[in-house]
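Supplementary Methods S3. Complex input for the fe (ii) ion-bound model.
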Amino acid sequence: MMIFRQLFDPISSTYTYILGCEASRAAVIIDAVFEQHNRDAALLRELDLHVKYAIDTHVHADHVTGAWLMKQTFQSPTVLSGDYAAEEVDVAAKDGTVLVFGDCALTVRATPGHTNGCLTLVTQDQTMAFTGDCLMIRGAGRTDFQSGSVHTMWHSIREQIFTLPDSCLIYPGHDYLGRTVSTVGEEKHFNPRIGGDAKEEDFAGYMNNLGLPHPRLLDIAVPANLRCGKPENGEIPQSVTWGPVTLTFAGIPEIEADWVARHLKDVYVLDVRSAAEFDGDLGHIDGSVLVPLDELREHSRKIITSKPIVTVCQSGKRSAMATQILKAAGHERVANIPGGLIRWLQLALPGLVSVPPDLPNE
Ligand SMILES: [Fe+2]
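Predicted complex, serialized as structure tokens:
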């Protein structure tokens, strides 16, 4: 029996996979996301799994990998294709590499095309394939940067993935529409780019006219991923004990709005919008203290509390900066609410004051 978990990062729409051997508890993690490290590490601990390999299907352009962090936490070797000039790689995988974890194993199939070093990982019994950004559900990864090649990808999909059993489940590196799994047979028939009677020139025509924008994080993610996600300063982000705080690659400590809503009495909520916004349409969190961001540097040392400080604004950007100002002023236990009050409203969380308390309430 193999333990299997599919995890999702909503920011980059990345799927992370955990596979574990039921008997030995040895596991692998595929395409971990840096910002989700605390989540993934917590789940691995709860499932009593020991990571044997932290594998990346390729050098990602849209998020930073959590592989190096996994190695710091679990001493798990990092695995990446040997076709990249990357640092911090412990196992330089190539076509035919077998990664054993307990009674389970994954065999590497080289599937370049999205990048020159893309790998597909196939379980021993060929019932599951982790295709990264090569074959995706009713799609395929773009081929217009990072040494991509539409013709190389055509051969990778046809010769390395479509040769698996039709019943083999396809687990991609991303999905932007919430689809979680497909099969080889399904994609052979219904993939609009390469399925059915598609010929190489049809696939190339489709792929060469996608007209996709430049990835927003390319210039940050690729250099970081060529270090397996090791931060430039080489330091492990500090873990926090007062709440489920995660640290973004930009160094912003974050805590989810729904946790804050459930722990309002335990935290000091600092709203850094303007006074007009504080009493405006969005309202404010009950009991929160207003210090506009522009005044925070001046007043940060006057904030005296024994509670952790949670910062909030409209969308989570000004309050992200507020965490840095507070930290510089010596406040250690600080976290931002990502998405701010907009996120709070989207989740329909309780605790919002929408009518200014000093106005007559009829
Ligand atoms: Fe990718």
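The radius of gyration is 23 Å. The pocket of fe (ii) ion is lined by residues 58, 60-61, 114, 133, 141 (CB under 6 Å).
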